[in-house]
């Protein structure tokens, strides 16, 4: 039973996350030779002010609304 954890900044819509888990589930089942119902996907979502790369907080680096597109 694969458990896949996705870490990402908050802001994605339910629609985006649903489409993502459908794709990930299908591919995981195919490549790991398991049933789709055995695949679990967990989201760990972080505020952009709690995530940084290249020495800059994402809340400053990317600004409001980044990654929220549908």
UniProtKB/TrEMBL annotation:
It comes from the Bacteria. Keywords: Isomerase. Residues 2-56 form the 4-oxalocrotonate tautomerase-like domain. The keyword Transport does not apply. Belongs to the 4-oxalocrotonate tautomerase family. This is 4-oxalocrotonate tautomerase family protein. It comes from Metabacillus endolithicus. The lineage of its organism: Bacteria, Bacillati, Bacillota, Bacilli, Bacillales.
């Amino acid at each position: 039973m694969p458990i896949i954890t996705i870490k990402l900044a908050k802001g994605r819509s339910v629609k985006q996350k649903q489409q993502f888990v459908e794709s990930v589930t299908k591919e995981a089942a195919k490549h790991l030779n398991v049933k789709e119902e055995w695949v679990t996907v967990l989201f760990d979502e972080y505020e952009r002010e709690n995530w940084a790369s290249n020495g800059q907080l994402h809340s400053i680096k990317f600004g409001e609304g980044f990654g929220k597109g549908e």
